[in-house]
Design a protein that fits this description.
This protein has 143 residues and is of the alpha/beta class. The chain has a single domain, classed as HUPs (Rossmann fold, 3-Layer(aba) Sandwich), CATH 3.40.50. 41% of the residues lie in helices and 29% in strands. A 5-stranded parallel β-sheet has the order 5-2-1-6-7, sandwiched between helices. A two-stranded antiparallel sheet has the order 3-4. Helix 1 links the parallel strand 1 and strand 2.
Length: 143
């Protein structure tokens, strides 16, 4: 039985589709829905003999956090009648979502498919692909 659905949200139309899918399923099963936006940490790029060089900012600005919370509020408002929690986490999206699904005892993890081709997927990796292979709960990828 599905009692808790964790949805990875990034503000894209794909994650909105995943949110709607989770909502429809929650309406049928009475499950609670948690919308989670994971902000990535700056990436480190090795520079030969140097240790590493961080690209991006080390700290998130209040404006960025407000924008992310606004996205979560907007997505949650699109889920009438559902019990919805919203959360923002920092880290690698696939790792954080898999970890949080386990910690929160989610029965199902739902994410949108960005539709990366083989080249970008190989270079960048795919959050949904990593989750399908590493999450300990069921994973649904919504197109």
């Amino acid at each position: 039985m599905v009692r808790h659905i964790l949805v990875g949200v990034d503000g894209s139309s794909h994650s909105r589709n995943a949110t709607r899918f989770a909502h429809d399923l929650a309406q049928q099963t009475g499950a609670k829905v948690t919308l989670m936006f994971v902000l990535e940490q700056p990436r480190l790029v090795p520079l030969g003999p140097f240790d590493a060089f961080a690209i991006g900012r080390n700290r998130r600005t209040p404006e960025e956090l407000d924008r992310v919370r606004g996205v979560l509020d907007e997505f949650a408002a699109d889920l009438p009648g559902a019990t919805v929690e919203k959360d923002v986490e920092l880290g690698d999206p696939a790792e954080v979502l898999a970890d949080q699904a386990e910690r929160r005892h989610a029965d199902l993890l739902v994410v949108g498919a960005r539709g990366l081709g083989p080249g970008p997927r190989w270079l960048l990796g795919s959050v949904s692909d990593k989750l399908v292979h590493h999450a300990k709960c069921a994973v649904t990828v919504v197109r």
